[in-house]
Amino acid sequence: MADHFADFALPDTDLTRKALEYAEELETPALVNHCVRSYLFGRAVGEGQGLRPGADYDDELLFLACVLHDAGLSEPGDRDQRFEVDGADVAAAFLRGHGLADDRIELVWQAIALHTSVGIAHRLRPEIALTHLGAGADVVGDGVEAFPEGFADRVHAAFPRLLPDAGLADAILDQALRNPRKAPLSSLAFELLRKAEPDLSVPDFRETAARAWHGVA
User: Fold this and answer.
1) What is the pLDDT of residue 190?
2) Listed residue (88, 116, 91, 112) closest to 190, CA to CA
3) pTM surpassing 0.85?
4) Which residues form the HD domain (predicted)?
């Protein structure tokens, strides 16, 4: 992996190397590769929008957010919240333990917690938006047509996919089946759970609201 820092101009700091090592300890190889591809694709999306690493956004923070964004799908990261928030908490604790400033930790936390928030994350700071857009590009191919010719092939050669969706769906669904509280209504985990369990009872918004205020003038 050390060669890849030079080969792909990854932000090479003591903290980024430790974060990648931490991700490799926590996650499967397929997930780690997905996380690194998310950074590379997010950076490429940013370049297509005219955003320059180091000038328009903090490249180290983008890398930290991307490489740790699925920590909530690891066994140590599987707690009692939706996986995005669990992962953000795991990342924050790791970064705090390595002396990162609180305001920088908060930005990484937000990027990870919001990385599946379609329609929201892309409107926020570049570090948050590019974490979201990079992960989306890797999982569903959003925006990849604008990448330089051969770039995606080069990334996949270095960080192969290994599994069709990097094992994301199975990991998210496994957590949701064991703990439904990790799949709140309309979350990615909930949608996967609803697809896998067609008989799942889905609360009706109008009925829930009516019960809450029944009898109140």
Assistant:
1) 93
2) 116
3) yes
4) 32-120
Residues 6+ apart with CB under 8 A from 125: 57, 107
Question: What is the Cα–Cα distance from 203 to 189, expressed in whole angstroms?
Answer: 16
Q: Model confidence at 2, in pLDDT bands (50, 70, 90)?
A: very low
- Domains of the chain: which residue ranges? 2-166
Q: Which of 44, 33, 11 is nearest to 137 (CA)?
A: 44
Q: The domain 2-166 is classified under which CATH number: 1.20.1420, 1.10.3210, 1.10.1060, 1.25.40?
A: 1.10.3210
- Taking residues 173-178, report their average pLDDT: 95
State residue 217's pLDDT score: 59
